[in-house]
Amino acid sequence: MNISFQIPDDDPVRLVKLLIERMDLSPLYQTYSRIEKNQASPRQLLAIVIYASMNQIFSSRRIESACRRDLNFQYLLEGKPVPDHATIARFRSHHMAACSRTLFADMDAVLAQAGALSLKNLFIDGTKIESVANKYTFVWKKSVTKRQAKVLAKIPGFILKTQELFGIQVLHTHAVHRYHLRRLLGKLKRLQREGHIVFVHGKGHRKTPLQKAIEKAKDFLHKTKEYAVQLHYCGDRNSYAKTDIDATFMHLKEDDHENGQGQA
Questions:
Q1: Residue pair 103/96 in contact by the 8 Å Cβ criterion
Q2: Do both 237 and 150 map to the same domain?
Q3: For residue 107, which of 61, 164, 183, 235 sits 20 to 30 Å off, Cα-Cα?
Q4: Which pTM value belongs to this model?
């Protein structure tokens, strides 16, 4: 059944269909080893996914439901069977994601050629969205600075004690840096090699003072490097997310509707 006559000429779905038809979709098709003739093609799947995003539909199950009920989605499918949610999810994660940069760059070029998009100005979205984030996925600059200071305060005493215990020396000024720890660790490992000392692990084994010193030096090196990297990621910000380094966390005030203390 021809349903295109039921869709207004200025409906955005027509622009989506025209846009997809003008794009170079060879990178997308190259992600397939075989394409079923009686199923929705990669071009049609891309069209329904883009149109779904335009309408704030992101769930693969909701996209499947829209393809069954919505006239515009059926127009994009061009009479092909409705893809199930697994097919839609697989298309987005395995095929579309593999070439998304190339596809969307080509989409911008096609829109610019059609006069629907201007490339003269670049706008950055500054929207701030509250997320439900795990409390262990963020790093606070203030906390890292405190932990770093505690570790750095322990290192001079550790170096002095190690030098007295094993008769080695690492020259340093009042400030101790990571390369001092590396030099100390190198000398401790040389003592291990010269003494043919085998380190032990697990319960029931007693570690030698040399093994404890080497493990402690490695721990100091690991922590100082970790804190330095975290502070580098923070930069001028007060925090960042481990799962997205560019994301910054914010403290949000919640309205107290029960006590009438809500904030406008």
A1: yes
A2: yes
A3: 61
A4: 0.49
